[in-house]
Write a structure and sequence with these properties.
Largest interface: A-B, 44 and 58 residues
Largest sheet of chain A: 4 strands, mixed
Structural class of chain B: alpha/beta
CATH topology of the largest domain in chain B: Rossmann fold
Largest sheet of chain B: 5 strands, mixed
Strand content of chain A: 5-15%
Strand content of chain B: 15-25%
CATH superfamily of the largest domain in chain B: NADH-ubiquinone oxidoreductase 51kDa subunit
Distance between the termini of chain B: 52 Å
Order of helices and strands of chain A: HHHHEHHEEEH
Radius of gyration of chain B: 22 Å
Oligomer: heterodimer
Number of domains of chain A: 2
Shape of chain A: elongated
Radius of gyration of chain A: 18 Å
Strand order of the largest sheet of chain B: 3-2-1-5-4
CATH architecture of the largest domain in chain B: 3-Layer(aba) Sandwich
Order of helices and strands of chain B: HHHHEHHEHEHEEHEEEHEEHEHEHHHH
Distance between the termini of chain A: 33 Å
Number of helices of chain A: 7
């Protein structure tokens, strides 16, 4: 099956090409682009990225599987990434994780989100939600579910 | 404690991220004018004289690094600004890119002039999308205002890999590859991006440049200590009343800092320990914290390191075995997997501490943990594994009784 980036994205790709000394550098930006376009990174998208970047398809795949934020499968439910590293743990991330288990979401345990001063923290669709309490989690999820 | 906000002075202004407010408050003004009146080598000399040290964790003198960049080369030079900020307990660079992005851009312009680079990349961790958007709009504003005629700035987004904060892994990632650290050359040389000479510096390091150029090396040296001049954005998290990022000069007492800005320990409990500079530095006991000073040499003298300056504060009720387990889970997850001692060592030590936590351990397991930690030290490409090794050793050296207590319960 062939894959195509949207016309907008194709325009964006041409601009990106001018900003790097090698096409190989487009690998991560294009993986992001595919993920935003489709909600995940398909094998077809990987083939297409391989053509644009002139990298071997396996190399693109290797990179896509290395970085934890790239999803090779579409999340079935709303993806909630909860930080569980030390600073968040000290301020109650275990409780938040436990509380989320009863919600209709896909929980992802992630390592330090760099939000230690406002812990505990979770991320939904690129946005941070900080200084969480169970009540706050309810309010936030209302906006999505 | 005197006010030493050199980098963070505009953080509290309303709309501080916009070009208008930045310009009204001194960005793109004196420092930039002075830089454009100086020759590249003169700029590097000022940075060297100022003693500015890299703020990403290593603390290497920035000027020495700049000097390694070739001034006359056929190949284009590049600047890569490290905004990967993934060290647990560290959240300072996000303050700069979201509250004063124009200060960073000004620093980039000056740095690029010094190293004759025409293009700067800002490598930002993938999770920081909302801060990336603020930074991007600042760059767009700077382009529209004609500020970026001599130098392009491109944001390159990572995708969730702690190791990409290591400078050579960062460049690998920018080249579209897995973030695997590179072998280090024997002689001192610059970094390479697609075979082109490249300088990698942390966001805060670059953001410190405009102040130095505007006020001169001596102006910067008015703050801090002889060997650690200037200031740093130190951060606090964990069991303190007011966690956050506060800039102070080097040499400030750690306890003073925690009490002055942090307002003391949460719920007025007693302090038990502090991990001083991001998770990868040796833990300090409460007694050590009392004498600890926030500069590179003092931290070294008490057997730890200043690192990124992100302090994780723990109160008297903190379970040290659980804390170490938490960190080992982090390291096991984030090991890039390239070197066997690191890939396997982080996994084994994580399992062993898990076993102790489950009450199934023994003193032998603690010794085995130290043995594994020894196999991780100095046998890998980058400093990830040695840092883990050092963290394990410090926890066990200082809190071995807590680990043994789990084992005793197991015997009963």
């Amino acid at each position: 099956m062939s894959y195509s980036f949207s016309p907008e994205n194709l325009k964006q790709i041409e601009l990106l090409k001018k900003r790097y000394p090698s096409l190989h550098a487009l690998n991560l930006p294009l993986l992001w682009m595919a993920q935003y376009q489709d909600g995940y990174i398909s094998l077809e998208a990987i083939d297409e990225i391989s053509k644009i970047t002139t990298l071997a398809p396996m190399e693109v795949y290797r990179v896509a599987t290395f970085y934890t934020m790239f999803k090779l499968e579409k999340p079935k439910k709303l993806l909630v990434s909860v930080c569980k590293t030390l600073s968040c743990k000290l301020r109650g991330s275990d409780e938040i994780l436990e509380y989320l288990k009863n919600k209709d979401v896909e929980i992802e345990h992630v390592e330090c989100l760099g939000s230690c001063g406002t812990s505990p923290v979770m991320q939904i669709q690129d946005k941070y939600y900080e200084e969480l309490t169970c009540n706050k989690v309810d309010d936030i999820l209302k906006g999505f579910l | 404690m005197r006010d030493a906000r050199l980098v963070s002075k505009r953080f509290s202004l309303e709309n501080s991220h916009t070009l208008k407010v930045a310009k009204e408050n001194g960005v793109y003004d004196e420092a930039l004018k002075r830089a454009y009146s100086l020759e590249p080598l003169e700029i590097i000399e000022i940075i060297k004289q100022s003693g500015l040290r890299g703020k990403g964790g290593g603390g290497a003198p920035a000027g020495d690094k700049w000097e390694l960049m070739p001034q006359d080369d056929d190949k284009p030079s590049f600047l890569a600004v490290n905004c990967d900020e993934s060290e647990p307990g560290t959240f300072k660079d996000r303050q700069i890119i979201s509250k004063d992005p124009h200060l960073l851009i000004e620093g980039i312009l000056i740095t690029c002039r010094a190293i004759k680079a025409r293009h700067a990349y800002i490598y930002i961790r993938g999770e920081y999308k909302q801060f990336q958007d603020i930074l991007q709009s600042a760059i767009d504003e700077a382009y529209a205002d004609g500020l970026l005629k001599e130098c392009d700035i491109t944001i390159h987004r990572g995708a969730g890999a702690y190791i990409c904060g290591e400078k050579s892994a960062l460049l690998e990632s920018m080249e579209g590859k897995r973030g695997h650290p590179r072998l280090k050359p024997k002689q001192k040389e610059c970094e390479w991006y697609f075979g082109n000479p490249t300088l990698v510096n942390n966001v805060e390091t670059i953001a410190s440049v405009p102040y130095i150029i505007e006020h001169g090396a001596e102006g910067y040296r008015e703050y801090g200590t002889e060997k650690s001049p200037g200031t740093m954005l130190f951060a606090m998290s964990g069991h303190v009343k007011n966690p956050g990022v506060y800039e102070v000069e080097f040499g400030t007492g750690m306890l003073d800092y925690i009490e002055h800005f942090g307002g003391g320990i949460l719920d007025d409990k007693k302090l038990k320990a502090v991990i001083p500079g991001g998770a990868s530095t040796d833990i300090l006991t409460a007694d050590e914290v009392k004498v600890a000073k926030l500069d590179y040499e003092s931290m070294r003298s008490i057997g730890s390191a200043l690192g990124t300056g992100g302090m994780i504060v723990m109160d008297e009720d903190t379970n040290m075995v659980e804390a170490l387990k938490n960190l080992l889970e982090f390291y096991h997850e984030e090991s890039c997997g390239q070197c066997t001692p690191c890939r396997e060592g982080t996994g084994w030590s994580n399992k062993l501490v898990g076993k102790i936590l489950d009450g199934k351990g023994s003193s032998e397991d603690i010794d085995k943990l130290l043995e594994i930690s020894d196999t991780m030290n100095g046998k890998t490409i980058c400093v990830f594994a040695p840092a883990v090794s050092s963290v394990i050793n410090s926890f066990i050296k200082k809190f071995r009784d807590e680990f043994e207590a789990y084992n005793k319960e197991a015997l009963i």
